[in-house]
């Protein structure tokens, strides 16, 4: 018995060692203690008054989204916000719909230029160079949304396909114009091996 006591550590096993041991085994690590207090509100007692029961019945009639909807603030809307919304309605009566839209790569380039040096690459300069409105530049710079890698790949493929379709449509329109002109002039073209049409 004395030999076994000499092997025992004089310091009791620490909590860290016990936790690291359980972390090694997946069957044991799932048995960690849980905080059961965060599961939600406690069930109501049967001894409640009729007034609270009526309030609960009224709340249950509302949909979940109506119950969670925020109340309108009591303080008035700031003057600056009212002026800005009035200006936006004046400039964009049908809402925001820019005539020219940028690709994701162009938006990323615009953001990186502005981040590199905001004083040189100001909003008016970027609007002029990218041929979009300053409001569009402001919205692009303000937005923080970034797509996931899968979404980005899908968007790139969709944009590439749309660009190729647009190029083909332009080529077909050009070809139609050329054929019309040839018919008017009545020039016969000889077939050759290099012609695609």
From TrEMBL:
<comment type="function">
    <text>Required for respiratory activity and maintenance and expression of the mitochondrial genome.</text>
</comment>
<comment type="similarity">
    <text>Belongs to the RRG9 family.</text>
</comment>
<dbReference type="GO" id="GO:0005634">
    <property type="term" value="C:nucleus"/>
</dbReference>
<dbReference type="InterPro" id="IPR010487">
    <property type="entry name" value="NGRN/Rrg9"/>
</dbReference>
<feature type="compositionally biased region" description="Basic and acidic residues">
    <location>
        <begin position="71"/>
        <end position="83"/>
    </location>
</feature>
<feature type="region of interest" description="Disordered">
    <location>
        <begin position="41"/>
        <end position="99"/>
    </location>
</feature>
<dbReference type="Pfam" id="PF06413">
    <property type="entry name" value="Neugrin"/>
</dbReference>
<protein>
    <recommendedName>
        <fullName>Required for respiratory growth protein 9, mitochondrial</fullName>
    </recommendedName>
</protein>
């Amino acid at each position: 018995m004395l030999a076994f006591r000499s092997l025992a550590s004089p310091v009791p096993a620490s909590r860290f060692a016990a936790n690291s041991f359980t972390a090694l085994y997946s069957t044991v690590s799932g048995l960690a203690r849980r905080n059961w207090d965060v599961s939600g509100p406690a069930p109501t007692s049967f001894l409640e008054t009729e007034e609270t029961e009526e309030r609960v019945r009224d709340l249950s009639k509302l949909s979940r989204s109506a119950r969670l909807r925020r109340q309108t603030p009591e303080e008035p809307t700031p003057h600056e916000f009212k002026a800005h919304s009035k200006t936006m309605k004046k400039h964009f009566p049908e809402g925001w719909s820019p005539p020219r839209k940028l690709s994701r790569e162009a938006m990323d380039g615009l953001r990186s230029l502005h981040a590199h040096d905001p004083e040189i690459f100001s909003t008016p300069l970027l609007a002029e160079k990218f041929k979009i409105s300053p409001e569009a530049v402001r919205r692009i710079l303000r937005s923080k949304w970034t797509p996931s890698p899968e979404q980005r790949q899908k968007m790139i493929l969709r944009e590439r396909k749309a660009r190729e379709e647009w190029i083909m449509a332009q080529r077909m329109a050009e070809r139609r114009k050329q054929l019309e002109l040839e018919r008017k002039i009545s020039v016969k073209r000889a077939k050759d091996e290099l012609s695609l049409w």
